[in-house]
């Protein structure tokens, strides 16, 4: 077996550049209280593009994500999503308009069953057909969630709870999926399965994905483009091929 | 003269409520346990004093005089408190509120029902008390005594709260399970805190009775309790000085309206209530942590204020696509950061070899032996007939699909969950049935998948809680050999700092741990579990969420721990980590161990490769 395999799950379409941007952050400043941790971040994600932000612990990756999602107010700069200025939008509004964020900590409604957790994800979806379709997709991705449909989510193992929160996000049929360290605590085979699903959705349905990873090797398998963050700033932007060509990409941290 | 007596009577009231509030603050602000019954414990103290005095005034003929009754009343309240604590402390916050509310109601109803205690009128004419021959009659007579009592209570609360003991209490407030995993007898700590709080409330009760010359139900009813709780909240839970402020604000409202604004006594009482409500609402809105917030909240505020002037570390970075440049900048950054010294503590005591009994410590000896361990949750098999061995100086990995029961194994081994069947031998002794803290003390410590850091403790305090054998964490020694506990505490802090340096987090020592990024918290949690110096370390996903550079450091560290004769077991999904570290690997599926061997043996197994590793 090849542990250091970074081969892509599916080849990225070449024509990414022509697709319109789904989300654009320009000069984004963010932080907690008065403490600024993100400085003048410029990034964009096109429709159907998978973009990965890599960087060390505390580089400001999660803060950037939370700010785009509207969980943290921006301290400056603008965020444009679906052509509209969403800088001041709240997470509830953004969620209703197709953003989904999966935090790194496990996040489930512990006292609800797995099934109810997933159904909550599809709260904004009125079409039963679409809901059933996603329901099927989530169960294909995580068969264990079908088996444990009536179990309380809080009693599942740590890794299974991560599956529930991923499933919850997919049930919302997002246009922009934001994943904070998706490989954390999951079995290797499961991670590969998740990444190939994301790739498939990006290619076939135009899903845009923003992935935070500390493990560039994992991200290389799936991302079209990379941003490297350090100390709250983006210090580098590269395509998959450029990043792959580096022998020293670990030194970027 | 009259003016002085009036002023002093208000001062005395402040002192009485200060004793109530300080004691409650110890329980609520430090140990994180709620009680809405401080006045009821005051009733126990106050009525005890009143009853003993009226029944046999001659009992005051000793030089101690009423002081003896004060002591009896306080001790009585402490005992009642400890008894209440027994069932109460297993409860969650909501139930604890209800239970203490019930205690409040029962005690006050009880003293009203018992005719010997004066019914609804209470015990009257408790006057002419003497202490050291001095009569306690006028406010001016009581003042020195009340002041002395307040200072003593403040000193006791300070010693208990702002010491290694208080560090454990605050740890319990943040995360009981993590505290237990570090060898703290959480139940004992909570019982003592509850008992001491009740005892000091009893003392305040005796002061209240002396001050009023009666022991009556209204002095100790629920509205008094809720006032005391409000004082703690307004002043700032977790800050003892804050309690004085909270008490002063709420007690001195009465003279403010009555004497300064000349409202007249009745109107003033009503206005006082209204103002009290307004103050409470405003404080909770504007300063939710109270007028004087606790240390960590204050420190956080300071850090933020500093951040305002100085944007942030490394913000002078210029984005630059050129890697060469970046390296130059990086080198410019701290180079000392990369030098890591193994703390002295980790250098395991060499087995001297001159005693035959100790020479049995050999690399490869079975340190932990698990036989037939089983556990079911309802219909779900969490662990089924597990047999495992952990050998000294080796690293064992536990791998398998999500939900296979790996973390459950850790929970079973450390006593967090009781197995249905099977034995666990640590150093030859069966430890099944022991509590997590006793198992930790016997030398098996664990880390958690979800970190379980103490967010509102500083990074250094987090690690210090891992250090074992601290005299300052023993209630008996806390007030005994103070110089020694202080000396040891200095060593504990030094050693904690060494551990932090080792995991590269020393720069963050004084920051609240809750403000760190996930991976940084993970490093602090590792330093914390290493600080226990346990023989057997169970690490639940130690490398997940940590960036590449630090993973290397962490793996190097874990390797060193193994080489030095400690026994390590890891649960890990990162195959690089398992490949590099594990001497032996167990593969778990659906609660069973279905394969074991070297990492290569497992990854070349075709079925496992397909089912788990995803490499087929």
Word description of this protein:
- The complex is a heterodimer of chains A (253) and B (616).
- Chain A is an alpha/beta fold and 253 residues long.
- Chain A is built from nine helices and ten strands.
- Chain A has a six-stranded mixed sheet with strand order 6-7-8-3-9-10, with helices on both faces. A four-stranded antiparallel sheet of chain A has the order 2-1-4-5, covered by helices on one side.
- In chain A, helix 3 (114-121) packs parallel to helix 6 (158-171).
- Chain A is globular and about 45 Å long.
- Chain B is of the alpha/beta class and 616 residues long.
- Chain B contains 24 helices and twelve strands.
- Chain B has helices at residues 2-30, 38-55, 66-88, 93-113, 139-161, 164-174, 176-181, 186-212, 222-235, 240-251, 253-260, 265-286, 295-309, 323-332, 406-413, 436-441, 459-464, 475-478, 482-503, 518-531, 548-563, 575-581, 599-603, 606-613, and strands at 130-131, 134-135, 366-377, 380-391, 395-399, 421-426, 429-430, 444-446, 536-540, 567-571, 584-589, 592-597.
- A six-stranded mixed sheet of chain B has the order 8-9-10-5-11-12, with helices on both faces.
- The N and C termini of chain B lie far apart (95 Å).
- Residues 304-342 and 344-360 of chain B have low confidence and may be disordered.
C-alpha geometry of chain B: elongated
Helix-strand makeup class of chain B: alpha/beta
Rg of chain B (C-alpha, Å): 29 Å
**First-to-last CA distance of chain B:** 95 Å
Summarize the entry for a quick read:
The complex is a heterodimer of chains A (253) and B (616). Chain A has 9 helices and 10 strands. Chain A is α/β, with parallel strands linked by helices and 253 residues long.
